[in-house]
Fold:
Amino acid sequence: MINLGEYNTLEILRDTEPGLFLGDGEDNEILLPNRYVPETFEIGDKIEVFAYLDNEERPVATTDKPYIKKGDFALLRCNQVTKFGAFLDWGLVKELFCPFKEQAFKMKAGGWYLVHCYLDEETERLVASSKTNHFLDNKELTVAQFDEVDLIVSHPSEIGMNVIVNNKHLGLVFNDDIYKDISVGDRLKGIVKKVRPDNKLDISLNQIGYRNIEPNAEHILFTLQDNSGYLPLHDKSDPEAIKEQLQMSKKSFKKAIGSLYKDRLITIEPEGIRLVD
Structure:
């Protein structure tokens, strides 16, 4: 099977005037136009190509690498807007079409938009949608608290920045956790700070350096962040106060803050611990 919108490794079947015909071994063929034919090749060689529809809606292969493939998200530039919709630059000869109905906000030529690429079942064409939340699902999560994740910055809200998590889920980085300039389309690493009962994901951007520390220490760091960088707990605090605040024993707490202090991530004050800026 030759999959549109994806990379396919195909066999060179024959050399013709318009280019090479490639096959998948199941009697499916696709043309690789002359402009993409390698300088040297032999019939029977395997070649990796990207498959999509050309301007005449015919399946065609290319060795060019698009900026986005089916099922992915990417920040793309709008080249033009016509009465049919917007046409985006995705690195191939034929532009990627985004219908008006799939535009979260009306696109303008020269603007940059975060979009999802999918195969329209009715037209069998690859199209784009800037309504990215429609392609994310938090009903069944594939991540857990403290997991390191890949992020794409999606869109701002009043309380933070929405992010796409591992190309599957929607997460939120709260304003208090944003310590550097980030923009829509940025690709970042993050950590799942909290999984809420409704499966909403709180994401932290600035804990990557902590991923090798023990879970209790990491939990304390996240709790410090949620409390403006300070907790009124120390090695002489009542065990019940520690358990109520952090859900851990005093022994575990002392071990964790000792590790954090050694790594210079916190300071220990007479009445509590403070996150190092």
Observations:
- The domain at 7-62 is CATH 2.40.50.140 (OB fold (Dihydrolipoamide Acetyltransferase, E2P)).
- The first strand starts at residue 7 and ends at 15.
